[in-house]
Structure formats: C-alpha cells, structure tokens
Amino acid sequence: MIDSTTTQRDGSAPAPRSAAPSPSEARAERRRLIESIRALRRLLDKRRTFELADQRRLNREARDQGRAEAANGKALQRIHERQVRQEASITRRLNGLDGKRDIQEKQALAVLRRESIERTLSSTYLNSSEVNGIGKGLIRDLAAQGIRTAADFKRVSWGKAPNGKGGDVLYIHRTRGGKVHINGIGEHRGRPLITWRDSAIARAEARAPRELPPNERHRIAEIIEAERKRLQQELKEAPIAAEKARAEAGRLHGDALAGLTADHREAAERAAERRAEFDAMAEQLLDLQTQLSAHIDQYGDVGRRVRRAQTRALRALPDAPPLPGIPSPRIPSDPEPSVNGAARPKISLAKVTDPPQPQPQPQPQPQPGLRASLGWLLPILYFSLTTLVGVGELGDNTAHLWVRFASRIFALAATAELLRLWVPRRRRRTADRMPKGTGFQTAGVFLALTAVGMFEDEKSDVFAAACAFSGLAVLLLLAGTGLRLSRTAHPHPF
User: Fold this and answer.
1) Is 458 a residue whose pLDDT tops 90?
2) Which of 156, 187, 207 is the last residue in one of the domains?
3) Distances, alpha carbon 103 to alpha carbons 109, 209, 291, in Å
4) Could you give the CA distance from residue 316 to residue 344 in angstroms, rounded to a whole number?
C-alpha cells in the first residue's frame, strides 16, 4: 500500500489541514451569530428613544438659555427705566429751584411780618384815653381776665349769659383760647374795643418790614445753592449707579450662564458617551453581519430552521443619524445581495484619518411636541355617531338590513382607525402629525356614507348627486391610500 503522506523537499512533514466542522457545529455557530445580532438589534432599538430624549434636552437647554437672556434683558430694562425716572426727577427739581427760592423768600417775609405785627400788638397796651367808654375800672377787670394788650384778644361775639339768666351778653374771645364776659362791657363799649384793636393792627402792619433783610436773603440763597449742588451731584451719580447695577446684572447673568453651560456640558458629555456606545454596538453589529455572511458563503445553507432567522439578521442596519451637528463614527452603506437570497451589508467604517464622506440627506422625522390637531375629534365623533344610528335611517326612511349593518361596521372601522392614529400623536413622547393621506381617506369615507344615505332616501330625487358623491369618495379613498402607501414605502430611519 502506498502512503499518501508526502514529505516536503526539506524533509519536514506538511501542515495538517483543518478539519471541516460537522453540520451540528455549523448550525450552532450560525445560531450563535444570529442570537448575538438579535441581542445587538434589541439594544440599538433604544437609540430612537435616546435621540428624542437628547433632542428634548437640547430644546430644554435652549429654553433655559432664552429665559436667562430674557431675565437679563428685563433686568437691564428696569435699570434703564429707573435711571431715566431718577434723572427726570432730579432735573425737574433742579428746574424748580428758582421758583422754590421765591416761595421760601415769600414765606420768610410772611413769618417776619407776622412776628413784627405780634410784637407790635404785644407792646400796645389798653389805655382809657384811647378807647371810648372804657375807664380804668374796666381796664383792671380786663387785665384780671388776661386781656392787657391788643394781642390778647381777637374778636367779640354775643351769647347767653354765664348764669343762664337774662338776655344775651357780649363775650371777648382771647387769643390763647376761651372767652370771657366783663360786666359793664356791652355793645356800646365792645365796638370801640374792636375798633381800637383794628387800628393797632393797621399801625403794626404799616410798620412791619416789606422786604427781607440782606442776611436773610443770603441765607435762603445759600440753602438753595446747597440744594442745587446736592441735586447736581445726584444727577452725576445716577449714571454711575446705573452702570454699577448693569455690571451686577451682568455678573449675575454670567454666573447663571456659567452654571447652565456647566450643566449642559456635563449632559452633552453623557449623551456623547451614550451615542458612542450606540455607534460601537452598530459597528459590532456590522462586524457580526460580516461574519455571518462569511459563514453563509463558506458553509451554505444549514437548515430551514435558521434560514428565516439569518435572513432577518442580515437585514441592513437602519440609518440612525444623530442630531444635527453631532458627529457619528459610523457611516452605513447600502446592502448587497448575498447567497441564498439573503441581504449582506457592506462594512464601511469611517476612520479619523479618512477624508469626510458626503452624508445622505436624512428624511424628515417626526418632531417631539408637534401634536395632531384637536380638529380630528369632529370626524371621530361623526363616525362614532354613525356607528350608533347608521345611515339612511333618519325620519321615515327605513334602510335595508345589509345597509344598516355594513354602514355601522364601516363607521366603526373608520372610528377605530382614526383613534389608532390620533391618540398616540397627541401624547408628548410620540407627538407627531397625522399621516399624509389620512385627510383624503377620512373625507372619502364621509362622502361614501353620505352617498349610501342618499341612495337609501326614497322620497327625494338625489340619485345623480349620490352617484357624484360616490365617484368623489372613490377618488379620495384612492388618493389617500396612495399617499399612505408611498409613506410606508419610504419610512423614517427609525
């Protein structure tokens, strides 16, 4: 027997060939790769939620930034308004100093004249020779009641007698308060007494000074000038105080922005770490898909049980672009067909040293916070009502049994479909517009139900209108369905 083992030219034995794995080992390896890809896909499914949360974070940061800027603007506006009011008030007081000087001079002159008149009246004593009818006895009685000079009383009046008996008597009103009655002084003696006092006041007013003395005017001028200097100093200090207030507001604004920037930077770093984890998992998934494609190329089909799983595992990784302005190290490429009809992706990882590759324009994605309109409640309520009452049954009309049943089923289906589309799009986390084409479909269903009701109307000749409504309903339904199908054919990346 000839030994098939050959030796090399140098006499050494050749390297043994690696033994091919058994079918069970190939299937186990295939399943391992598929399970690993499936686990990574489950983890990568969380990326959309992460990106939406990060977008909300960026929106919140922008709102915080805007609020800080608005607060700083309001603070600066208040400082400016306060400065303007203060300067206007000081300027108005400065302009009124000349008038204030005249007023103070008039007041000082009035005080000086009043004091002069009071001194003159206090030195004018009652004298029997100057007041007709009043002798020395009455003067003594008046002095006993505190009335000695013209400054001690001011007027006379009539009133009841102190003891309540008799008629009215004459009372003399003292300057310091109170009134007295002097026996023997009635109307004939009270009138000369008041005349004497009026003559004394006229003489005192004639002797009172009519101009301020120079020293008093100089004193008032010094007071006004000191007030003017003080106000001018306040007017100069108003812009300085406003500038200090602006500096303080700027410092507080800077501190607030620094705090926000620090928080934003920390949140951005955490988001970048999380995004890097997703990118690393995407690269690992592409690597596992490459290994699975190589395994399929090398060992072929290993059984129908894993055929569908491997086809699903080799699906192209959906394009998950990060938020605008945030780089991602992964650049996905289009898949290429592989053996057994399975799709095999091309692995293309961008390196730091590689030149930047043109990125495909991302398709528009639903924006968080953009909710479906409340106007969709009108067709929902209409279809709900139609589900209860049907069509063609109003008044004396009686629709066919199949029409009553079919219209209710049709309206119930339309209500359920609108609720299925509208309710999630009203929630905060899944807020979005209604799918394109839903309005055409809703209008088509409405016209279709209206046309059925018109066909069932036996008393009115609306057959032509019912046919027109039916045709328009078909066109709207076809247009809306076409828009819905085109949107499904080009879905969002996530």
Assistant:
1) no
2) 207
3) 10, 17, 103
4) 7
Alpha helices in 342-462 (DSSP H): 377-389, 401-422, 438-455
Q: How far apart are CA 363 and CA 400, in angstroms?
A: 49
Number of domains in the chain: 2
Q: Residue 69 in contact with residue 327, Cβ under 8 Å?
A: no
pLDDT at 395: 57
- Helix axis angle for 377-389 and 401-422, nearest 10°, is 150
**Domain edge (last residue) among 158, 189, 207:** 207
Who's near 411: CB < 8 A, 6+ residues apart? 383, 384, 386, 387, 390, 445, 449
Neighbours of 338 (CB within 10 A): 19
Whether residue 357 is contained in a domain is answered as: no
Rounded mean pLDDT of 467-475? 89
Nearest 5°: the CA angle 431, 434, 436 is 140
CA-nearest of 494, 54, 33 to 298 is 33
Q: For the chain, give me the number of helices (H) and strands (E)?
A: 11, 5
For residue 491, pLDDT over 60 is answered with: no
pLDDT in tens, 361-398: 444 444 444 678 888 999 999 999 888 887 766 655 66
Which class for 162: exposed (0-12), middle (13-18), buried (19 or more C-beta within 10 A)? exposed
Q: Identify the burial level of 444 via C-beta atoms within 10 angstroms of its C-beta, where 0-12 means exposed, 13-18 middle and 19 or more buried.
A: buried
Longest dimension (CA), the chain: 185
Is 320 within a domain?
no
Residue 29 pLDDT exceeds 80: yes
Say if 431 falls within a structural domain.
yes
Task: Mark residue 296 as left, alpha or beta (left: phi above 0; alpha: psi -120 to 50; beta: remaining).
Answer: alpha
Q: Which of 1-15, 51-65, 158-172, 383-397 has the lowest mean pLDDT?
A: 1-15
Q: Using an 8 Å Cβ cutoff, are 149 and 123 in contact?
A: yes
Q: What is the pTM (predicted TM-score) of this model?
A: 0.46
In a domain, 65, yes or no: no
Task: Look at residue 485 in the predicted model and tell me its pLDDT.
Answer: 85
Q: What are phi and psi of 154, to 5 degrees?
A: -125, -30
State the chain's mean pLDDT as an integer. Answer: 79
Strands 335-337 and 343-345: antiparallel
Within a 13 Å sphere around the CA of 216, how many CA atoms are in the beta-carbon half? 14
Domain span at 442: 374-489
Question: Which of 19-28, 261-270, 431-440 is predicted least confidently?
Answer: 19-28
